[in-house]
Amino acid sequence: MTDRLYLYDTTLRDGQQTQGVQFSAAEKTEIAQMLDALGVDYIEGGWPGANPTDSDFFAAPPPTRAMLTAFGMTKRAGRSAGNDDVLAAVLNAGTQGVCLVGKTHDFHVREALGIPLDDNIDNISASIAHVAGLGREALFDAEHFFDGWKADRDYALSCLIAARDAGARWIVLCDTNGGTLPHEIAEITAQVIAAGIPGARLGIHAHDDTGNAVACTLAAVRAGARQVQGTLNGLGERCGNANLTTLIPTLALKPEFAGLLPQIAPEALRGLLKTSRRLDEILNRAPQANAPYVGASAFAHKAGLHASAIIRNPTTYEHVAPETTGNARIIPMSNQAGQSNLRARLSDAGLTVPEGADLGAILADVKAREDRGYAYDVAEASFELLARRHLGALPRFFDVERYRVIVERRRNAKGAQISVSEAVVTVRLQGQRVMSVSESHGETDLDDRGPVNALWRALGKDLGPYQASIDDMRLVDFRVRITQGGTDAVTRVTIDSEDRQGTRWSTVGVSANIVDASFEALHDAVVWKLIRDGAAP
What pTM did the predictor assign? Predict the structure, then answer.
């Protein structure tokens, strides 16, 4: 395959259909800029006039190399294309690209639109011709196409032909309910091309209701479709859309698709992980650890036998090099680890193992601690500190003498019940005793911030020469698990931290007291950051 494939992103419109997702206009602008830097060809900004946010976005769109596209629907029956206010709102957005959705399943035309089949074809033809006549690039989203093809292929095809003849640059086959399987997608796409819709003008938009959206998209590409639609991180209603975060590296790195994505520069592909995580950050949700290419576990090798092979030949258990998408290989430590895992992990951390070092003691400590509830395979930073302690390579930046947390439940000035947490942390730093106090609370009962937030703010409030490093980090996820039940329950707390450069690290604490476990993980996070920044003890 040597011809060109075009990428059409619909995160800002279809992705916003995800339950619980509502972008602001400013967030849409940032995401559009991220997509443009990645190298996609089309950015669908939303439906102008459908809601204030989309209208605000199109009123002041960001400059992009990609073609910004407005989404809408074909004109309504009984009106001309030039006299349909809904279509006019889409066109008034002023975008070069205009994507119109239209019915191609006879059932939906009769039952949802309630119009004759021929009227629907006229609506498609007139709407696309109107857009093209204005000098815009017209795209036609053939809604419920695959179900429509199975029900009445002649009618479904006639809808596509109407769009083609009216001047549509792209005709997109939509698997709207996500129920079509990859082999069906391939067969039907090939039949559509054979029936007179050129692959160079044909797109695919798959939903993930069977977990096959990526596979369906690849099947359509292999059959000849040359536009791919999807969303970052697979956002979308129900089970989501085809995940461009998976599709782009697959199409860019797999030999079968070589040359199809010349617009995706290697340096842009290396920024894919950062782009994916920034979107999750905007959505205030934890990244999916097992996501292909960009997940924290995508290149994690836990068993000792695998690690031994990876040390000798990194490609043995990896289908692509982790760094191609900005990721990194991880050899996590756990109670299944062997010395090969340990040596590889120490090497990755930049640690030199002294001659005669007792690696067995480190492994024994890891296994004993995991038996008590620690989990080092998901807390690599805490493992590195443990190993440094054994190797005599753990800097001593400061000592925590004591800390105290008080939680008070009371009413605020507005009469709302709130919880107020006050934390006091005392550290010894360069011979000086420093005490920091922080209070944490929200404006409403649902916005309360608890004792861990107060502890973090107190610990990171005044660390003297290390303050710049601490100000550069923030906590992005907090997970709690009870590892032993009953009255003597043991709590494991895992904290994810991140700095402004996008470096992310995880630490773990274990205690019968959740606050103690949290503080242990917080302390590890700060110490690891100082080591990574090269701070002098």
Answer: 0.74
